[in-house]
């Protein structure tokens, strides 16, 4: 097989335009497939970051928009395995323009670094943030994107909460992930609700974030919390932070199935394209099949030469497609990570290997039938074919 | 002292065409001795190519026995036949049949890829075969860059590169001008005399047949006895 590679290679590039078109269409499809694979990996397969694996999110069982009472905090704190419980209240709102998208949330500063141990803040800045009730802590990425410095004012126009809040940037945190948030004092929000006459909206919490003593407690803690509030007026749903992230995707339907159907459709389409090309190119080689057999090539040898050509073309297309996908992923990983950690958008070896396997399968499947039939041809019949 | 290299007994080949049966070869008894240069002649459709294909084991007889180089061809499997043909038969076509994507050198190297020879040995053998046919300066030319006569000489180099005992040629000069045809015939003659190759050549051309040491005629599928020609042969 290997000693036939020069012939296989030269045959592959014999009809330049056709080979190029086939390679390009395989590359485009595999690029798409790879990006879908990366998405799938990020959404459903990638392990939680180690710090993230330590955290659970408690929310209202009915939906995220229904709150939980403030009084749950102390009860949750009592559950064995819970190291810390912190309020995490999604604020939303608009910063200057609705297209400026990053997470803004109210938290409890004194607990934050205990729960989010991956956040790194300089000591003096941290002290300034804790001391200023209207101060905010900004992720490095967001600070850089909007060119915000310590001491700058950040006005937010409320939507979920009908208040406008203005913060002073007191600290900027670094983190290898999740470094785009604007975080501020829950007390500040709660009090604004009270003073603006929204008493009904005060002392309510969207979610609690728990840091466990170890990730192995996730199941038992979740069960214990949800059991505790099962018969309360506002039952809870407790899940890992990772699962919570993924549940955001549910609102665009069955993402998993959708992605699988698209992938299957892409693979099938490209298979048809490749099969058509291969059928054409094998038809052009029929006479050569007779010549090769006259020289002593066996049916198996001829088969491997004909299929080798398809495999070379599809692997080339696959390689180019993966290169494109790599570039695309690099672009995507710069997008805001509000709901999904976009920094994880890299072409993993597993996805790359999977795509090359798909390319190989396309090469094999698309060429097998015509190559098999051609290789079985009687020598004289094959030689009689005129070009 | 003469050693038969091809021996056929009652060799027949029928083709089924639609409902009709075509008897392409009818009970041919042919003996070719080692070192002979035999020309096969006869009218179109008389079975010359069919006989040559059976000798090369490119087709199987309907009945009769065929023994080539001491090998009974009827008993061999397809893959054994392929191997046997690679090692013992050189075949030259009327229409050259070089692979267009390969250079002259690569075309000649091709049959050697089925042997155990190393890459450098293969190249060395192929280069020597091309020198022998007078194309040492055309190694890197593709078939498209060669004249018909040169293409046929490359094809002959390809046929002899495995050093086969038997060289079979089906109208090797049929597509060539007179000058190129003479070159090819001279080459086949040399291979026969200097290198001891046994040659069986199908031809229509009486000039070409003169290069051979013996002419055998076929007529309507029958191999005529030595020295005998089809009745209306001279008239043609
Ligand atoms: N595959 C086939 N199917 C049906 N008939 C065939 C087949 N091959 C050859 N024949 C017939 O067998 C007969 C002998 O054919 P063959 O090719 O051996 O003739 P030939 O002497 O080589 O003729 P030519 O000089 O034209 O090449 C012809 O009548 C031909 O039509
Ligand atoms: Mg013929």
How far the N terminus sits from the C terminus of chain A, by CA atoms, comes to 26 Å
How would the global form of chain A be characterised? elongated
What is the succession of H and E elements of chain B? EEEEHEEHEHHHEHEHEE
| Radius of gyration computed on alpha carbons of chain B | 18 Å
Kindly state the number of beta strands of chain B: 11
**Mean pLDDT over the residues of chain A:** 90
Notes on the structure:
- The complex is a heterodimer of chains A (387) and B (236).
- Chain A folds into 2 domains: 2-47 and 253-384, no CATH class; 67-233, no CATH class.
- Chain A has 13 helices and 11 strands.
- In chain A, the strands form 2 sheets. In chain A, strands 6-7-5-8-4-3-10-1-11 form a 9-stranded mixed β-sheet.
- Chain A has helices at residues 5-12, 16-45, 72-77, 109-115, 123-131, 140-145, 186-195, 218-228, 241-247, 255-294, 299-332, 349-376, 379-384, and strands spanning 55-60, 68-69, 82-90, 104-107, 135-139, 153-157, 164-173, 182-185, 204-205, 207-212, 236-240.
- The mean pLDDT of chain A is 90.
- In chain A, helix 2 crosses helix 11 (299-332), helix 10 (255-294) runs antiparallel to helix 11 (299-332) and helix 10 packs parallel to helix 12 (349-376).
- The longest helix of chain A is centred in the last third of the chain and has 40 residues, at 255-294.
- In chain A, 52% of the residues lie in helices and 15% in strands.
- Chain A is α+β, with helices and mostly antiparallel strands and 387 residues long.
- Chain B is an alpha/beta fold and 236 residues long.
- Chain B has one domain (4-235): 3-Layer(aba) Sandwich (Rossmann fold).
- Chain B has 7 helices and 11 strands.
- In chain B, helix 6 links the parallel strand 8 (166-170) and strand 9 (198-202).
- The longest helix of chain B has 16 residues, at 178-193.
- The radius of gyration of chain B is 18 Å and the shape is globular.
- The N and C termini of chain B lie far apart (38 Å).
- The A-B interface holds A 3-4, 6-7, 10-11, 14, 287-288, 290-301, 378-380, 383 and B 53, 56, 58-59, 78-79, 82-83, 85-87, 91, 93, 97, 99-102, 106, 110-111, 113-114, 119, 158.
- The complex binds adenosine-5'-triphosphate and magnesium ion.
- Adenosine-5'-triphosphate is lined by residues 15, 17, 22, 24, 42, 44-50 of chain B.
């Amino acid at each position: 097989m290997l000693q036939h590679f020069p012939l296989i290679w030269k045959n592959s590039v014999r009809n330049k335009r056709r080979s190029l078109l086939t390679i390009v269409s395989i590359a485009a499809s595999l690029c798409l497939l790879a990006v879908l694979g990366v998405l799938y990996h990020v959404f459903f397969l990638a392990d939680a970051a180690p710090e993230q694996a330590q955290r659970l999110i408690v929310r209202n069982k009915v939906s995220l928009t229904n709150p939980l009472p403030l009084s749950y905090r102390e009860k949750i704190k009592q559950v064995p395995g819970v190291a810390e419980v912190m309020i995490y209240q999604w604020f939303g709102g608009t910063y200057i323009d609705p297209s400026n998208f990053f997470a803004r949330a109210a938290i409890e500063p004194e607990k934050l670094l205990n729960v989010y141990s991956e956040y790194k803040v300089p000591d003096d800045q941290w002290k300034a943030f804790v001391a200023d009730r209207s101060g905010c802590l900004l992720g490095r990425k967001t600070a850089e994107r909007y060119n915000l410095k310590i001491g700058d004012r950040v006005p937010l126009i409320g939507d979920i909460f009908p208040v406008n809040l203005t913060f002073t940037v007191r600290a900027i945190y670094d983190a290898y992930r999740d470094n785009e948030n604007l975080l501020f004092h829950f007390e500040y929000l709660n009090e604004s609700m009270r003073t603006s006459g929204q008493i009904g909206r005060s002392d309510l919490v969207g979610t609690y974030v728990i840091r466990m003593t170890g990730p192995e407690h996730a199941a038992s803690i979740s069960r214990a919390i949800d059991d505790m509030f099962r018969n309360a007026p506002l039952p809870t749903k407790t899940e890992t932070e990772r699962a919570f992230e993924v549940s955001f995707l549910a609102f665009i339907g069955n993402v998993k199935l959708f992605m699988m159907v698209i992938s299957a459709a892409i693979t099938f389409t490209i298979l048809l394209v490749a099969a058509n090309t291969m059928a054409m190119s094998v038809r052009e080689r029929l006479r050569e099949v007779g010549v090769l057999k006259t020289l002593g090539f066996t049916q198996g040898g001829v088969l491997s030469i004909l299929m080798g050509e398809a495999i070379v073309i599809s692997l080339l297309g696959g390689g180019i497609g993966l290169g494109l996908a790599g570039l695309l992923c690099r672009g995507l990983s710069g997008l805001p990570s509000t709901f999904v950690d976009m920094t994880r958008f890299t072409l993993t070896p597993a996805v790359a290997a999977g795509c090359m396997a798909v390319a190989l399968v396309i090469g094999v499947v698309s060429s097998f039938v015509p190559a098999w039939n051609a290789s079985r041809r009687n020598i004289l019949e094959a030689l009689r074919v005129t070009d | 002292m003469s050693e038969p290299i091809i021996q056929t007994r009652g060799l027949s080949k029928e083709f089924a065409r639609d409902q009709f049966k075509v008897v392409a070869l009818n009970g041919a008894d042919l003996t070719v001795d080692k070192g002979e240069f035999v020309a096969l002649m006869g009218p179109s459709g008389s079975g010359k190519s069919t006989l040559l294909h059976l000798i090369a084991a490119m087709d199987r007889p309907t009945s009769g026995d065929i023994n080539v180089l001491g090998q009974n061809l009827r008993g061999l499997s397809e893959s054994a036949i392929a191997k046997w043909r690679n090692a013992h038969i050189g075949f030259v076509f009327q229409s050259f049949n070089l692979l267009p994507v390969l250079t002259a050198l690569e075309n000649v190297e091709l049959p050697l890829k089925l042997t155990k020879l190393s890459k450098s040995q293969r190249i060395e053998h192929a280069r020597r075969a091309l020198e022998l046919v007078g194309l040492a300066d055309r190694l890197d030319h593709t078939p498209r860059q060669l004249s018909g006569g040169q293409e046929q000489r490359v094809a002959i180099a390809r046929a002899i590169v495995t050093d086969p005992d038997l060289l079979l040629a089906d109208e090797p000069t049929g597509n060539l001008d007179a000058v190129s045809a003479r070159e090819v015939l001279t080459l086949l003659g040399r291979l026969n005399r200097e290198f001891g190759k046994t040659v069986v050549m199908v031809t229509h051309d009486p000039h070409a047949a003169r290069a051979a040491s013996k002419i055998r005629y076929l007529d309507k599928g029958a191999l005529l006895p030595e020295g005998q020609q089809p009745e209306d042969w001279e008239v043609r």
